[in-house]
TrEMBL record:
InterPro entries (UniProt xref): Ald_Oxase/Xan_DH_a/b, Ald_Oxase/Xan_DH_a/b_sf, Ald_Oxase/xanthine_DH-like
The protein's name in its UniProt record: Aldehyde oxidase/xanthine dehydrogenase a/b hammerhead domain-containing protein
The species this protein was found in: marine metagenome
Keyword flag Kinase: no
Record-linked Gene3D superfamilies: Aldehyde oxidase/xanthine dehydrogenase, a/b hammerhead
Keywords: Molybdenum, Oxidoreductase
Length: 107
């Protein structure tokens, strides 16, 4: 590649200027719309519940109370990602190691 193919110094005229931010007013007034603000029909929100004990040993996970709560679509544990789970439509074979804690809390 020859030097002629590169832009010249005069072509770089943005540095040192104050470009107009067309979305600036909406952002500083709270009117800007972000991805988290979009509500689509039949949208399901997820929430992660973490252990209160770091590096704790997991004896069992009882999800029965959570499953009975109003609005709960599903409760997911490590059992939903086991390697031999034939009902799992997602292929996570290479990422199986620490998706969800099984025997020990992972932090």
């Amino acid at each position: 590649m020859t030097i002629e193919n590169y832009k010249q110094k005069k072509d770089f005229n943005v540095i040192g200027t104050n470009p107009i931010r067309h979305d600036g007013y909406d952002k500083v007034t709270g009117r800007a719309i972000y991805g988290a603000d979009v509500k689509l029909p039949n949208l399901i929100w997820g929430e992660v519940v973490r252990s209160t004990i770091a590096h704790g040993k997991i004896k069992s996970i009882d999800v029965s109370e959570a499953e009975k709560m109003e609005g709960v679509f599903a409760v997911i544990t490590h059992k939903d990602f086991e390697k031999n789970n034939k009902d799992n439509n997602v292929n996570l074979a290479r990422d199986m190691q620490n998706i969800l804690a099984k025997d020990k809390v992972l932090y």
